[in-house]
Amino acid sequence: MTHLYLIRHGEAYYNVEQDGSGIVPGIVGDKGLTPRGRAQAQRLRERLASSGEIQADALLASTFARAWQTAEIIAPALGLSIIPDDDLQEMRVGEADGMTEREVLEKYGIPEYRVNPYARLAPGAENWGEFTLRVGAMFDRVIREHAGKTVVLVTHGGVVDSSFNVFMRLHTLRVPEFALYTHNTAITEWKLDAGGGFHQNAESDRESHWRLVRYNDDYHIRRDLADASSQSSASDREMNGHDS
Asked: What structural domains and CATH numbers belong to the chain?
């Protein structure tokens, strides 16, 4: 039985920077985890080490700094080396990478993906459909390469959000009407019930499906959630589709 554990990175500098000063965090602009984000990841490591609740066969991580640093912190609890995977990256921001939010707003404007899912944040950036296709193809590849195993994926809120679109077979060319808010270092668990792989024929499809076991499991940092200002800032960016 295949299990996927998706873990969002700890709090990043972009999550807390205010007033348009935040650096858009692609591969260049990502400044990594804040001290609080490192502490969140350390608490997750302690939880996993003491509970043994995830017995993983592989640990994959986005190559963006905030996710990679999170994976480095929790890896000892899983006893695994980290496998870098570019396809676990957040939505790619193209030429906006490394610019401040204010600069992006002045030069390109901020796209409203719910109105126009084909819009791009900047030249070279992904639109919503391209991002979802990349994430779906990544899941398909990962579960084929690790069929019947348990895999931990350290990634971003947008990838976690897209897992719902992919596994529940929702519309992938536009942003869904519902909104998710995945907390820093929260665990989301998907289980593939017996019967086949990612895509099955009509007969086997009735026997096999993805089951959401848990979402936003973050009890290791519950007391941090009282700090609403940081979380509100992160939520606002996620709703606009250019953070996580």
From this structure: 2-19+34-92+126-218 (3.40.50.1240)
